[in-house]
Design a protein that fits this description.
7 helices; globular; 10 strands; 10-stranded mixed β-sheet; alpha/beta
């Protein structure tokens, strides 16, 4: 049956949530989003639309134990960005002038977010979320059922190319997507300023997503093999595509797996 495997994975995940008791004192999570400048976008409208989808996938979660912080240069014209759960931060440093500056720009915005979290005495989980990826509508609820770990690494999850109408599961998700780690930070581990410094948060902000798990002892880190994040390809304004490191028509073949036809039922799980 078409899409039987991925559909079954998602339905199995959804069914387990209601059977698992949440922990007594759930820890809040902050989703931090580095939003790229209009000056380096190919299509500002598409980039804004993708951010809106990302925000809605969070805002439509079944559990509201989260906050969202978005850092960027130009505030997008979106209804979602005005939601009371979202804090917008305007970056005062210059935007990158080309693709070579994309990674540094993203990481500097992450530190800007961390510095804001320190001002509100935030203690909780933090997840870097790219401004085009989506989270499952049970993501926060699921996180609140897990016993405490310093870090959760999403090892297995989903990718989709909306242009090719293909969806696939990859068993090395954290190797291919920056939206793949959930890390606990206490207030004293957050940066005091928006400049790069030696705080634990800043160190991890400048760590490749492929290596984040290596920063933790095995007992403090848990790999998650659940379809709770969806990486989105196919719209042509992805930084990897602009840098010519990834083809807009990327498919499951690149990830050595078998894809399935993308159908509308996926949006029952990633609610945008």
């Amino acid at each position: 049956m078409v899409n039987d495997f991925i559909s079954k994975c998602l339905l199995d995940f959804k069914s387990t949530i209601g059977k698992t008791k949440p922990i007594d004192d759930p820890i809040p999570i902050c989703f931090g989003i580095s939003f790229k400048s209009k000056k380096v976008c190919r299509d500002w409208q598409v980039v804004q639309k993708n951010l809106a989808n990302t925000l809605r996938s969070i805002l439509n979660n079944s559990n509201s134990n989260y906050i969202i912080v978005v850092a960027g240069h130009e505030k997008p014209s979106l209804i979602e960005i005005e939601n009371k759960k979202i804090k917008w931060i305007t970056a005062s440093f210059p935007p990158p002038i080309g693709p070579r500056g994309f990674n540094l720009d993203k990481r500097k915005k992450r530190i800007l977010i961390g510095a804001y979290l320190k001002t509100i005495n935030f203690n909780g989980f933090y997840m870097h979320l790219d401004a085009d990826d989506l989270i499952h509508f049970k993501f926060v609820e699921y996180l609140n059922t897990l016993s405490f770990k310093k870090a959760f690494i999403i090892r297995e999850s989903l990718m989709v190319n909306t242009n090719k109408k293909e969806i696939w599961l990859t068993k090395k998700f954290y190797q291919h997507c920056g939206s793949s780690s959930v890390i606990y930070f206490s207030t004293n581990e957050l940066p005091r300023t928006s400049k790069k410094e030696k705080s634990e948060f800043s160190k991890l902000a400048f760590t490749s997503h492929k290596s984040v798990h290596l920063k933790f002892k095995k007992k403090d880190c848990l790999f998650i093999d659940k379809p709770i994040v969806l990486r989105v390809f196919g719209y042509g304004d992805n930084n990897m595509t602009i840098k010519k490191l990834l083809n807009v028509n990327v498919s499951s073949q690149k990830y050595s797996t078998k894809g399935e036809i993308l159908r509308d039922w996926i949006w029952e799980h990633f609610r945008i």
